[in-house]
Amino acid sequence: MSKVAGFVVRSSKFRHVFGKSVKKEEHYENVQSNASAPDSNLLDCSSKYFAVPWRGGGGPFVVWPLSKPGRLPQDVPLCTGHNGAVMDLHFSPFCDELVASGSDDTTTRIWKIPVGGLTEDMEEPQATLTGHHKKVILVRWNPVADSVLSTVSFDNTIKIWDAEKAAERSCFSDFTDAIQSFEWNYNGSRYATYCKDKVVRIIDPRNNKVTNQSTGHQGTKGARFSWLGDRPMFCTIGFSKQSERQIFFWDERDTSKSLSEVQIDIASGTLLPFFDSDTSLLYLAGKGDTNIRYFEIEDADPFQYYLAQFLGKDPQRGVGYVPKRGLDVLNCEITRFLRLSQTHIEPVSFSVPRKGDQFQSDIYPDTFAGRPSLKCEDWFKGANAAPMMMSMNPADGGTFRAVVKGSSQGVDMAAGGVPGG
What we know:
Layout: E1 2-4, E2 7-9, E3 18-21, E4 28-29, E5 44-45, E6 49-53, E7 61-65, E8 70-71, E9 86-91, E10 98-103, E11 108-112, E12 127-129, E13 136-141, E14 148-153, E15 158-162, E16 167-172, E17 179-184, E18 191-195, E19 199-204, E20 209-215, E21 224-227, E22 233-239, E23 244-251, E24 260-266, E25 271-276, E26 281-286, E27 291-297, E28 304-311, E29 318-321, E30 333-340, E31 345-351, E32 367-368, H1 376-380, E33 389-390, E34 400-404, E35 407-410
Parallel strand pairs: 4-8
Antiparallel strand pairs: 1-2, 3-31, 5-6, 6-7, 9-10, 10-11, 11-12, 13-14, 14-15, 15-16, 17-18, 18-19, 19-20, 21-22, 22-23, 23-24, 25-26, 26-27, 27-28, 29-30, 30-31, 32-33, 33-34, 34-35
């Protein structure tokens, strides 16, 4: 902290982060997505592609290269294997071309897209996961273990799969009401849910037990959950009884009461949280809103500091977060989102204002490398590991680093290798 003209100014590298839309010619036009899925972000991104549900019978969706902005063709190639609307999409964190889709037809399908993108419709997935009795509303890959996938259904169950073998490995069904939000923790050892009964549950998936729970927001509209990196904190985003949108911050070790409560505004759209663990910035994008707010998260009271907001022109129906490996580091870009509107997708870039074109190491710590730290079977046997990290300095050529006792150490790995394997 420093004092300027009688005011206390908080020192932060990210106090002046600003967001801006890219040029119109870098938007993606002729987007024909009429999907409605209240619990999904609708749009998902890898470092090379975005995926979004598409208009038409049978539940089609589009996977399109990020490197090809402009007007999408009228006969754009589709993934067309489902028999009902696609409710959610999620790219594998370890393979830019692998995407999971959850559908109203009760199935989850795994798709391997050709490198470079589709040139014709794809009807046959790599695998089909069956076992839910109602629509699949959320699909999420584990962030550290290869081929571990979770599926959340309207039948109030969560299944964990070995996706490579298309085998169900566990099912948790101790929910009293609909599941609205699901998120793996930083090292993929547990997951958390927020349900319509207003209860947050933290669950050990390998023992199928609730390890902690708390009562969240009192409003009846949908709520979201977000871990805050590897710190023992999380936040929930929901509504008060008076329909005020709120953020509650919690200590995972004691959830008897929240650490802090922030009232945001009065609006009807669900706020979608995106936490960047590299910078400790929390972004909130409301469905139906035109803005994206962002906060800096700290470990001490008041735990959050509002920074600013990006303000666009068109309401957003969904938002996708581009992995760090796809950013322009020499222009100090720290985050990029894709905003889905009624007819187009708009990239929004967040940057730290700096002079020069040199790599700024203080705003680019090692980031997630996009490689697994564990094999699937080792994870199911109880092994835990931190995410594999990599340097963002172009001069390092993407050096991969294993995290050992809290620090990143360079490792010599064969391409695609898994530690211990």
